[in-house]
Amino acid sequence: MTTTRRSASTGGGAGAPPSGQGPSGQESSSGDWRRGYRDVVRVGEFRALWVAHALSMTGSYLLNIAVALLVYHQTSSALAAGITMALTFLPQIIGGPLLSGLADLFPRRRVIVISDLTRAVLVAGIGIPGLPVWAIWVLVFCSTLPMVPFGAARAALMAEIVQGERYVAGSAIINITTQVGTLAGLVLGGGVVAAVGPNSAVMFNGLTFVASAAIIRFGVRYRPAPRDEREERPSLWRVTREGTRVVFGDARLRTLGLFAWLAGFYAIPYGLAGPLADEVGGGAMAAGLLMAGPSMGAIIGGFVLTRLINPESRMRLIGPLAVAASVPLLAWALHPPLWVMVGLLMLSGMTASYQFVANAAFVLCAPSKGRGLAFGLVAAGLQAVQGIGIALASLLVEVTGLHVVITVAGGLGVAGALLLASPWSRLSSEAIALMHTPPDADAPDGDQAPGPGPGTGRGTRPQ
């Protein structure tokens, strides 16, 4: 994997076509960026990725709820149910640095299909009646691990299917779909389990992953692996070392990755939704509203940011919006009522939609051969900072109180974002240039995606 930093003058390595090209390579006006949504959904391979992602994501949320209820029904222990939920985060933290590298070692379509089919088998096993809790925990852990290579391969493969502004629009659609799925999971998950029972819900849930695998297998054409499969497979240490060098050796990737990790601050109210609801005399419904607030805001903010604001301004707004994402938390110093708290979290979610643009910029800036690994490393870090942040905040609440902890988290988030906004104001122009870089500009660095572009008629060997 190359670690050469590529400036705007040498190209972006994302296989990006000239800014005036449409999904099939035809010329179009460079000023029609508002057509990004319409253009990207016309690409059949993107639609396949989109639907497959929606199915896998829906399956994941239903699985989390169903398994937690399954364990709770067996044990009547809130602690056991909590451990079950924690096990859905740990695999991504532990497996991120290693398993995300699979997206750079093997054909990415194959990685996605195998990841989904593996999850389907393991998830079906969880639903077998009579399994002891320890066996359920083992299967939950193992069934979550394939999410790591799935996510890394999906992000890297999408950069080969659509480029430039269409990649940004496609990334926004994927992220908005995730937020809608979060809301649907919170609202519908419990009802599905109540209707068919936790065991049946878990077992039938495995079908969502089978359907996702089939859509990718028949809806996305074959592309060879970024690395030659005959090369020696790297060790865990080498993969972690190379991934760290790729991310932290490039100022653009480092800054964008740290922007993503700021979520560890402004996600803290989400993790404290239960205690916040109790403090204002609310119940499960109040906690659900607090947890849904950021997702509702992200849906609105993501649409406005990617649909109504031009690409150049959008990239430059990453810094200011990152600062604004933590500002609403400062209002907890005033002990706001429930409806104000929900509004503040919606506002935080709206401004935190900068993550949609930062995510797209990160993938565009990452070298093709290390794109999956770099994405997985930052994704694992994101899971870690959110988990550690919520755990630490829960501990400090026992000492200082809810409102103090959330207010301080907001202040730290603002300070961290300000430190990143300054360098990004200089680096954003490079990311903007990558959206308009011809694919041939990357050939000398060897970072160009090896597969031919859409519509060439090559690279169709079945795999």
TrEMBL record:
Keywords: Cell membrane, Membrane, Transmembrane, Transmembrane helix. One of its GO terms (molecular function) is transmembrane transporter activity. Residues 454-463 have a biased composition (Gly residues). Gene3D superfamilies: MFS general substrate transporter like domains. InterPro entries: Bacilysin_exporter_BacE_put, MFS, MFS_trans_sf. Residues 1-33, 436-463 are annotated as: Disordered. The chain crosses the membrane at residues 48-72, 78-99, 202-220, 255-272, 284-305, 317-334, 340-366, 373-396, 402-421. It is found in: Cell membrane. GO terms for cellular component: plasma membrane. It comes from the Bacteria. CDD domains: MFS_MefA_like (cd06173). Residues 16-31 have a biased composition (Low complexity). Its main location: membrane. It is a multi-pass membrane protein. The keyword Cell membrane applies. This is MFS transporter.
